[in-house]
Design goal:
six-stranded mixed β-sheet, alpha/beta, Rossmann fold
């Protein structure tokens, strides 16, 4: 379902984000930064005046005179004609059910053409059944009113996953060969009775987790949620290196150290400029290998690529650079959101070229698929 009018949305902030996607579908180059600035304009009160809000968004979204002319027509189509303040006449649907959302949490949820499907999937479901349904619902089909609940559920489940993994590490201390020397020394204080037995075991080396997230336009419905997943991993696990890529690659590890997720999103918005652009996976992996691989990859590292594999670059280059990563890392995993779609086949040139170099090829389209990653992260 495509959104054609502001009244299709639950509140003003969602309508502003919806308008950003609306004009983007018309051909304007709109990304997360422009969307955040539009939200700021609305928060500053510019939305109180039709003309003021029009020219504020026009200055943010348009870069040529031709775009400006078309923009005014699209603005009138979406927000309505000049009849005073937009805010005072915007119909807010389901007002009693609307929950307050921060700009950061609104931006990550995405605004695709799947609202109708998501609302249908989540309809008439409540309590435990609703939680179970959300775990299995494709991120691109989650109803907007369920996004905040999904976020809370995800954080809870990822925290539980980290606790299970730490518990497995502790249990490993009860295994291993008997340490005869320590056993005898301990038995002296107990009259020579060699109980309890002392054991010794090599402490497993901690793996480094290296994650590369595709934030190109084709990943819009998934990339912001997957970014939250990476942030959660960084909060619970050590030795994580994170990168985002589309037409170039950017290291974002330092941004993930922030305790507040909304602050992290804000910093990324102002510092990263390759969101929602094209995809040149091979070129980005080449840059990664040349600039970062020696520092972050080793025989104890696990590398995860989160991408739909819809590459516009040279598939042979992609295969060559992936082979280099495979030689440097313990395990190479590719998580593709499209793999969760019924009937999906990895026939795209980029994905086909990548498959022979991968140790693991799995989906990353919903909560349950991400939780399955636990079995590969035992020593991260």
């Amino acid at each position: 379902m495509s959104y054609q009018h502001a009244s299709d949305f639950g509140n003003l902030k969602e309508a502003t984000i919806g308008f950003a996607h609306f004009v983007r579908e018309k051909g304007l180059n709109i990304g997360i930064r422009e969307t955040q600035e539009a939200l700021m304009a609305a928060d500053f009160g510019l939305i109180e005046s039709y003309d003021t809000f029009l020219y504020a968004l026009k200055s943010i979204f348009c870069s040529t005179e031709e775009e400006g002319v078309q923009f005014e027509e699209w603005f009138a189509q979406f927000w309505g004609q000049r009849k005073g303040a937009i805010k005072s006449r915007l119909t807010i649907k389901n007002q009693s059910n609307i929950q307050k959302k921060s700009p950061g949490s609104l931006v990550w949820m995405g605004m695709g053409d799947s609202r109708e499907d998501g609302e249908e999937e989540g309809k008439n479901v409540s309590g435990a059944n609703k939680m179970e349904r959300l775990r299995k619902t494709d991120f691109s089909k989650v109803a907007h009113m369920d996004s905040e609940l999904l976020e809370q559920l995800a954080m809870q489940l990822w925290k539980q996953m980290s606790l299970r993994m730490k518990r497995k590490m502790k249990l490993a201390t009860s295994q291993g060969r008997i340490d005869l020397r320590r056993t005898i020394r301990t038995s002296i204080s107990k009259g020579g009775n060699p109980i309890p037995l002392k054991r010794k075991k090599r402490v497993p080396s901690r793996q480094r987790l290296v994650i590369l997230l595709d934030v190109s336009g084709s990943m819009d419905k998934y990339s912001f949620f997957l970014l939250r997943f990476i942030w959660s991993l960084r909060a619970h696990f050590e030795q994580i290196e994170a990168f985002i890529f589309s037409t170039n690659i950017v290291r974002i590890t330092d941004f993930l150290d922030r305790k507040d997720l909304e602050h992290t999103l804000g910093l990324l918005t102002s510092s990263v400029h390759n969101w929602s652009s094209g995809t040149q996976i091979g070129e980005c992996l080449k840059t990664f290998n040349e600039a970062y691989a020696k520092q972050v990859l080793s025989g104890r590292s696990t590398t995860i690529i989160l991408s739909d594999g819809l590459d516009t670059g040279d598939p042979e280059l992609l295969a060559v650079e992936l082979a280099k990563i495979r030689r440097r890392t313990r395990r190479l995993i590719w998580l593709n959101p499209l793999k969760g779609m019924q009937g999906y086949e990895p026939t795209a040139k980029g994905m086909s070229a990548a498959l022979p170099e991968l140790h693991v090829f799995q989906s990353a389209h919903n909560l349950d698929s991400l939780l399955e990653l636990e079995k590969y992260l035992s020593y991260v």
